[in-house]
Specification:
Elements lengths: L1 H10 L2 H14 L23 E3 L14 H5 L5 E7 L5 E9 L8 H5 L5 E3 L14 E2 L1 H23 L3
Antiparallel strand pairs: 1-4, 2-3, 3-5
Bound molecules: iron/sulfur cluster (2 copies).
């Protein structure tokens, strides 16, 4: 009986008609796809994308080389070296994040006492060889400098819910 049903269904192109009806139904429905990268979907201020190192408005690096982020990172993706400056403050001489190890958990930014290392909304970055995804201090500071306005606005928004 089932076999007869199946043969009849094939002969009458029943499945094809069902498929066309479904296509027809969605042809006039509201479009939910966006034309990336010209269009973007809304993002949370807590989005955890590419990392950045921030500066104070006077240009001084925020990072005090306490190494909390390095210690807390579960993926061991952060490498920091530091030295004391002539004014007795301490600053990093090396701050690398290996994004091929990073799991974007956000623990580094949560642990930072001076809001220096942060994760931005940037997700459309890429590397063409493995080393390209090791972000150095210089690269991280450049990201911070470029997106500081957005980073500061996101931090202010996030603070309202804490
Ligand atoms: S987001 Fe998580 S895994 Fe990535 S560097 Fe920060 S602490 Fe490490
Ligand atoms: S980024 Fe923050 S947590 Fe990491 S070493 Fe610098 S001050 Fe410490």
């Amino acid at each position: 009986m089932n076999r007869i049903k199946s043969v009849l269904s094939s002969l009458m192109l029943f499945e094809l008609l069902k498929g066309m009806a479904l296509t027809g139904r969605y042809m006039f429905a509201r479009k939910i796809t966006v034309q990336f990268p010209e269009e973007r979907t809304p993002m949370s201020p807590r989005f955890r994308g590419l990392h950045a190192l921030r500066r104070y408005p006077n240009g001084e690096e925020r990072c005090i080389a306490c190494k909390l982020c390095e210690a807390v990172c579960p993926a061991m993706a952060i490498t920091i070296e530091s030295e004391q400056r002539e004014d007795n403050t301490r600053r990093t001489t090396r701050y690398d994040i290996d994004l091929t190890k990073c799991i974007f958990c956000g623990m580094c930014e949560e642990s930072c006492p001076v809001d220096s290392i942060v994760e931005t909304r940037i997700f459309d970055y890429h590397g063409e060889k493995r080393g390209d995804l090791v972000y150095t201090k210089k690269m991280l500071l450049e990201v911070g400098d470029k997106y500081e306005a957005q980073i500061a606005a996101d931090r202010a928004e996030d603070a309202k819910f804490r």
